[in-house]
């Protein structure tokens, strides 16, 4: 590789390739005229049109021209750089050219496709675009991709179904996994459910085997009752600080329950969503894994009665919190979501004391280990209802929560069918906007519910009114175009899914962006659905958006595969589009340190003329290449590689050289 | 590259070279920015330009437009470009 100064003195020899993309570009843009124009631009030694630049003949042409004409810069005018940028960078590399001495300009989506009615105008615009790309490539510098070492372990945050699946898949491939779960048991929200749609399996038939695989896996370290405190570092070398609250109960515990009998401190049982109480020392639930008791330190009064009662001597009240820092090459975020909880004064009359229930409460009522041993009894009088109404889209698809929670339609059909199967005489109706079924099997399930006599009413519920021991459901029926009123004995709200309460905290720690609804944002909804904007951080499950268990496991497997793709390398390559700070030009104002969204700019203490001075420096592996530092630096000390001030200024000048007043110049984010 | 990469100097350069109109387009705040808050940092810069710098230089602040448009909102981008195109065309008529 030649040095920078060699490149500065080198005579520029630019090749420009204008792609027809079949007729996609050529039927609107006069590609011949554009190529002829390109040939007149300074330092362009060859300009050609190709039918398909990305196909083999197009690629070979570029390589041949580099050899024949001694090209040292390449411009391709074709489709999106997001689509074929890597293709042509690879062509450059194969031709012996640094891949960053290349510019791509999109004359398809940005030109031919949007100006189909104006061929002349489109051709003129394509020429301007090519002129801008040539201007930018002239001062392009050869850059080297970053090489960073890869740790051979992964931290999976969240031990629900998604985290479990990712952990097991990664561990099966021979890598170390640290699975961190906040709750004292594994399985997450799923283990609170009664059954899974649409095959009606008991949850333990699906999730318990997965939990057992994780618990017994030699490559998985499971941490329960453990929180993530701090995350630093970057792809290949994350440092995850975890804090374990401790169970105060050792592996010796065989869950005999003698301790619970002597414990006097009580609280609401969160696993049973508020039905009933639990003690300070308790088994989180009947099928809890690990199958061990745990002490709630906030509730425990340190009386010591449990320790005295334990025949195994498994209880140690003096145990303290422990902290540990784990190194990981990659991180899987699988923290799930949480159900929407209706606020006070809601129009469905939900207050936790009458006969309006949330979907999760109904799951517990229908569960054999639930508060009513599987009978959906009324809270007010303990009787079985004879009329039940489900209300869809509670906390979904409204102004405040505009997303569809995706699982509630099927969940309602499941709960309605369960009630119908056990108590065929109970009248069940479902008030809905649309019934949304995503998978091919779901339609059969819906049909089964209708055939079983569940009434589906396309009606918006305006209010639920408690009335003499019953509940009046007031709705506007879309088909009948009239207001309807129905008295029922029980209402079930199909409550939507919200982001986890920990999403903000972890998002801030990892700098993973969230979308407006608070769920974690994938790097690209189509091209990079498993990745986040942060290299080495992947998403699995509901923390991205509401998903059913099948979709969660699917994505979790995908996220695991992405981790394995990274972990199979000892060193990994990251692109060179990052910032670089010239410390000789830096005056130590440190605005870049303050403004960097990724904490990737740090302060160095350097000695200049015998005095200690502060100077900014970019941590290359952490930099995402947003360029905020370069835009803010008044000293010109920051170079945003690939998007330098000089390159952008030259493009502005090129665009506005002719008829500037008749043009709109747009600066747009490349996302 | 993010809208956060755009400096005040770049926008002023465009006007200095005679640009008819300038558009800055980024991802919806607060959460859609792929670089956490580059869009908000850009918004701050544009606000200062519109409130202070452009009027001082005798440039109509309305010739600079900041819009949030996601890559999935083609129709919104189209609407903005059409509006700007019409504005440019009517400005030309006035000049003539």
How is this structure best described in words?
The complex is a heterodimer of chains A (671) and B (96). Chain A is of the alpha/beta class and 671 residues long. Chain A has 5 domains: 142 residues, Rossmann fold (3-Layer(aba) Sandwich), CATH 3.40.50; 169 residues, 3-Layer(bba) Sandwich (FAD/NAD(P)-binding domain); 74 residues, Alpha-Beta Plaits; 161 residues, 3-Layer(bba) Sandwich (FAD/NAD(P)-binding domain); 62 residues, Alpha-Beta Plaits, CATH 3.30.70. Chain A is globular and about 90 Å long. Chain B is mainly alpha-helical. Chain B has one domain. Chain B is 52% helix and 11% strand. Chain B contains 3 helices and 2 strands, in the order H-E-H-E-H. Chain B has a two-stranded parallel ribbon with strand order 1-2. The longest helix of chain B has 22 residues. Chain B starts with 7 loop residues before the first helix and ends with a helix. The interface between A and B is large, with 42 and 45 residues.
List the helices and strands and how they pair.
The complex is a heterodimer of chains A (671) and B (96).
Chain A: H1 4-9, E1 14-19, H2 31-39, E2 44-50, H3 56-69, E3 73-78, H4 81-94, E4 102-106, H5 108-112, H6 119-138, E5 146-149, E6 153-157, H7 161-172, E7 176-180, E8 195-196, E9 201-202, H8 203-216, E10 220-223, E11 226-234, E12 237-244, H9 258-262, E13 266-268, E14 277-279, E15 281-282, E16 294-295, H10 305-309, E17 322-328, E18 330-333, E19 337-339, E20 356-358, H11 359-366, E21 387-394, H12 408-422, E22 427-432, H13 440-451, E23 455-467, E24 470-477, E25 482-488, E26 490-495, E27 497-499, H14 503-510, E28 537-539, H15 549-567, E29 571-574, E30 579-581, H16 591-595, E31 601-608, E32 611-618, H17 628-632, E33 638-640, H18 645-655, E34 664-668
Helix pairs in contact in A: 2-6, 3-4, 6-18, 7-8, 7-15, 11-12, 12-13
Chain B: H1 8-16, E1 21-26, H2 38-56, E2 64-68, H3 74-95
Parallel strand pairs in B: 1-2
